[in-house]
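[scheduler] slot 2 assigned
[scheduler] job type: sequence-to-structure, two independent chains
[scheduler] chain ordering preserved from manifest
[runner] begin chain α
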Amino acid sequence: MCFGCAWLWLAVLAAVSVLAALAIVWGPMRRVLSANSTLALARGFYTRCLVLILLFSALAGIAAVHMPSADEQKSWATMQYVWWVANGLESVFWALAIFLLGYAIVLAILYSVLGRHRDQ
């Protein structure tokens, strides 16, 4: 197994994890953003920001992975490439989790402020 193949697997698995996160969050997020009439114009902005930042956080997680030297790569067995990909996915999953947590907190604060404003 070559290092380029391992990096390609890491990139594919990171993209799949982003798509999985979007599939889970997309429907409920669109319904929440549609429920408040004052955010109708901002709905496209918030959904595009979600997609872009999830994608960039996954790419940043891949870029942060330690690249082994050429000498190290020559002595690697197949299982070491598997663990290298798994180690790279760890940083991708942390980046996605932290961003989704922050995004949910920001939307909760936004809705609590707008709900109070609309109730007055």
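[runner] end chain α
[runner] begin chain β
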Amino acid sequence: MPEPVSNKERESAMRSHRPAVLLIYTGGTIGMVKNEETGALENFNFDRLIEEVPELRRFDYRISTYTFNPPIDSSDMSIDHWAKLVRIINFNYNFFDGFVILHGTDTMSYTASALSFMLENLGKPVILTGSQLPIGMLRTDGKENLITAIEIAAAKRQDGSPMVPEVCIYFKDKLLRGNRTTKIHADRFNAFRSFNYPPLATVGINIEYNESLIRRPDTDKSFKVHLLVDPNVTVLTLFPGITQSLVHSVLHIPGLRAVVLRTFGAGNAPQLAWFKQELKEAADRGILFVNITQCQAGSVQMGLYETSLPLIEAGVVSGYDSTPECAITKLMFLIGHNLPIEEVRMLMNSNLRGEITK
């Protein structure tokens, strides 16, 4: 169990009529400040958040903080860290109106996708954000991203329900469904894009929510968390000239349970006899294949062209318009529950958290 927010803070949040937001700092560029003596960038103490971002005083919110100890670079993000985030949110779920996760940009879309599946029937906002420049730098994008993410996490509809009860990424004026996102730029402020689903909100002078696009929890069901995730998934990207030895070695990784196939165009693959045979033998060993396109936008349409027929014959499942990050984490989530393979196939074809368009 991760160390909780103090009981005093949680009780205060419950008693207060002001919106309460829990800020979780995992690591990443946004939490850096410059040491004036050494010139080095260092993680700042989020207990002193108001000193670094005094603009937060203008919010009539209760903001509590939790910091990973030690903070991690997002390149080191793992399924254990996802589980830790889920435990923190679950432990504090009844005491806060929303949650903001500060996260490095490199793997933020993976974490957002994973959390969307691990937090079932979510009824409160979980907003991931970060920055391309440290929060202590003059031209940082971190302050605006942080301030707006907190405002979105606390936002309510007229009936008092949360405005955006989803796992989202907020970055550079756009609120995006987390499991629809991918990082598109290494050094521009508009680092994330959702190619196959519109923004849930656009931020300018006002925050304009597209409420018709926002998912709502099923009021007849309870919030439920999942901690079972299996990392025995790999990605096989097809390319002209791919060799049998490469495909064979990938499909014989010890413990492998599922493969995300990144195919051409609308889901097409080579019609080479050896390729068909490798897929069939792997499928006979119980390995599940999911087909997604290498294109940034658009969807797999298996059967549209003859070149996708070998995949259908091998029992490959369509990933529709899933992002790679979503397809990978959804598979990890489903196979982690040790479901029968036919049930996993069915669920991969199902829209569980707004992650695919069918």
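[runner] end chain β
[qc] chain β: Residues 7-225 form a domain with the Rossmann fold fold (CATH 3.40.50.1170).
[scheduler] slot 2 released
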